[in-house]
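Tokens as discussed.
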């Protein structure tokens, strides 16, 4: 799949967390290009910018380890194949990054490949000063950009919902978000739609406010700047948007609020993980409809299976690109009284995608400490890593039996 970069202008913000994300960074292969770009930055007194030697390989390494700049220049000299390197960069770049490429090949086919990948422009070295200035002005939005249509790479939406309260859907959602941010190095937004439980914040050891209520009641006031200020950073790549509401204070949710909110989040994050409360509300139905992946969490009890049957009409006939994942949590909790997996699958007419064992002491200990279970070791952590891989796009191979290993 060809990854796409954004064609929008970088935005500015005053939050300390956002200031650590540079406005513009360049990675070039030669000192002449480095000096030319440094002179451009100095002439305009641009803040929060830097120029490095190393080309696109250095850019890929940097974006894998830390937040991407809002605008990026990469040198494709000696990068073969260049279009493949650009797509590798896109895998690690935060959504919304505008990219300008330079190189030593005057090749129309290369130019077309780069434009298809979403690169804003391509300049051939040596860099004429006037042409470089015009391209960088366009990249940074300093002058009016040339109008063009580019497909923007949008983040993937995963909705996690439990068949009933207490099956561990919030634990799955929180650990999935943390794992994508820390194991997959993706920029992740965790959206806790249960505005009264505060559970996601407690599991991550952070405190939230009432920003989500504002977003759901007055979507017309919500933009990317509001979200930058409202979302709580849990670590370098994971951000939480939640509420701290009283159960007796009803919320008047605008029906257009959630689609608008998710649309904004998809432009800035690789993943939007939604922890949807099992209430049968319009909000839960919207969260399931808008998701590309729907993770349904249940346990081996008759109550859970009954509620799963009631929920199933919302999951049947998924739209193109949608997938359902059935996660059996707390396996072993009910002992001999547990409903057998085969009987469960036959009743709900769906296959189990992943199982997570019951380990109350470790789960409670991690929750009380405000740390994800996935950050530690043990059978639950191992099972959650398989859930992470399944929803992250690459399902791990199940462990081989001893007789299967004999032939190796």
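Sequence:
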């Amino acid at each position: 799949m060809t990854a796409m970069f954004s064609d929008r202008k970088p935005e500015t913000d005053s939050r300390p967390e956002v200031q650590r994300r540079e406005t513009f960074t360049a990675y070039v292969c030669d000192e002449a290009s480095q000096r030319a770009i440094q002179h451009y930055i100095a002439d305009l007194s641009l803040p929060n910018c830097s120029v490095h030697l190393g080309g696109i390989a250095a850019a890929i390494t940097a974006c894998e380890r830390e937040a991407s700049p809002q605008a990026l220049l990469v040198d494709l000299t000696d990068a073969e194949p260049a279009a493949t390197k650009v797509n590798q960069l896109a895998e690690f770049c935060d959504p919304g990054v505008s990219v300008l490429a330079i190189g030593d090949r005057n090749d129309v086919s290369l130019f077309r490949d780069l434009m298809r990948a979403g690169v804003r422009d391509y300049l051939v070295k040596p860099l004429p000063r006037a042409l470089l200035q015009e391209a960088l002005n366009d990249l940074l939005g300093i002058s009016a950009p040339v109008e063009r249509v580019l497909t923007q790479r949008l983040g993937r939406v995963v909705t996690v919902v439990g068949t009933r309260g207490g099956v561990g859907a919030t634990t799955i959602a929180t650990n999935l978000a943390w794992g994508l941010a820390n194991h997959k190095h993706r920029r992740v937004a965790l959206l806790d739609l249960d505005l009264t439980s505060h559970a996601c914040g407690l599991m991550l050891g952070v405190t939230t406010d009432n920003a989500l209520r504002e977003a759901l009641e007055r979507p017309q006031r919500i933009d990317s700047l509001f979200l930058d200020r409202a979302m709580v950073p849990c670590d370098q790549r994971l951000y939480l948007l939640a509420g701290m509401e009283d159960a007796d204070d009803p919320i008047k949710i605008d029906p257009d609020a959630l689609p608008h909110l998710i649309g904004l989040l998809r432009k800035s994050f690789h993943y939007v993980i939604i922890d949807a409360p099992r209430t049968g509300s319009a909000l839960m139905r919207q969260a399931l409809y808008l998701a590309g992946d729907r993770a349904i969490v249940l346990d081996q009890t008759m109550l859970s299976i009954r509620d799963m049957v009631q929920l199933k009409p919302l999951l049947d006939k998924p739209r193109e690109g949608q997938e359902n994942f059935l996660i059996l949590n707390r396996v072993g909790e009910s002992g001999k009284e547990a409903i057998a997996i085969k009987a469960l699958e036959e009743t709900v007419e769906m296959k189990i995608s992943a199982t997570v064992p019951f380990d109350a002491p470790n789960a409670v200990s991690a929750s009380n400490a405000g740390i994800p279970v996935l950050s530690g070791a043990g059978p639950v952590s191992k099972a959650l890593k398989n859930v992470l891989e399944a929803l992250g796009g690459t399902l791990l191979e199940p462990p081989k039996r001893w007789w299967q290993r004999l032939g190796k």
